[in-house]
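Ticket #399: bound-state structure for cytidine-5'-monophosphate.
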Amino acid sequence: MKLSARKILLCVSGGIAAYKAIDLVSRLTKSGAEVKTLMTDGALEFIKPVNFSAITRGSVHSSLFSDADPIPHINLADWADLMVVAPATANVMAKAAQGISDDLLSATMLAHNKPILFVPAMNVHMFENPATQSNIKVLQERGHLILEPDTGMLACGYTGKGKFPPVEEILWAISLYLSHKQDLKGIRVLLTAGACVENIDPMRCITNRSSGKMGLALARALYLRGADLTLVHAQMDFPVPYYLRRAIKAESAAEMNTAVLANAKDQDWIVMCAAVSDFTPKAPAQEKIKKGSDIILDLVQTTDILACLGREKTSEQILIGFAAETSDLITNAKAKLEKKNLDMIAANHLGVAGKNETSLNLISASGNKTLQGDKFSVALELIDEIKSYYDKETDGSNA
Ligand code: C5P
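RESOLUTION: The complex was predicted; output attached.
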């Protein structure tokens, strides 16, 4: 991920997860971002500022009155492209919601006139307390961004929601919010991802080289931009992000067909990024096939899910397919666009499977555009294209 020359003000408040912000600041610095650090008095109880000053090569700001700058809250607020409060305690979010300004962080939040990204981490009861939830709601209504906590074993000994998210997920969120807003609120999206797996016997299977990276990049970008997302996924090399509550596992083409058709109705966009198997063993063996003699695999065609969706598409729905090809990319993709009644098709050469970078030819009835770069940036651009097509189709009622 590249965040070259973007100005991030990392604000660390006083929770046990404060030490995890050290990894975050290191990853941000390595990504090319310019980072300044602000710590609350609570954070100073947990970790020393030198952790941040050594990594950012800059001093850490913690006092409203004894900083080298006479007005640190104004200058830090003006300087930052994005303020990230990680970890964000219940106290800090309460102050932000109420407009209290009694220390450097709260004064800087008040002086900052852009959305702030909060990464709450705390005890599950503190997080679920109606006071905290209502403060979060107020902050969201004002356009601030809350990356919800992960669920699991907490430092306090409880198990529940309140964990500091994996640093990777915070980096995706930062990268997204630097360039995009939550512009997909109210849009329902069904997305498929991953490589389907067809059983030959209980041990052996047929699958393909899709890693799920492009699908996961789309899932993250759709969720963070506010879409109401349902992910149907087959096998992927990486876990489903913890915040995707509607993630349905469907390994084989038949399972994916059932899961997609059950969820297709009422979706505004259907994006079929999964590498669905085109063939499956006619009669998978129930017992492991013994070696000792040659066997012939009898393969039958699977149901073409995308073609079914194309036939049943409503006038309010848009349908986007993917096409991976070894030759005649554009000609083959254009033929699929028409045959399967799609609004758009994203075509790529097979070489990008498993890679971090991709090159997609996005084809619609109105033309052809190339999207290139790391898969997350391409996902964002692809969503921009889908959104502008959708806004036109719906007469701008979603713009
Ligand atoms: O025709 P082809 O299989 O190459 O088209 C690829 C597109 O069709 C992808 O979007 C894939 O998710 C979808 N597909 C499908 N059902 C299949 C095979 C592919 O929906 N059985």
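RESOLUTION NOTES: The chain has a mean pLDDT of 96.
TICKET STATUS: resolved
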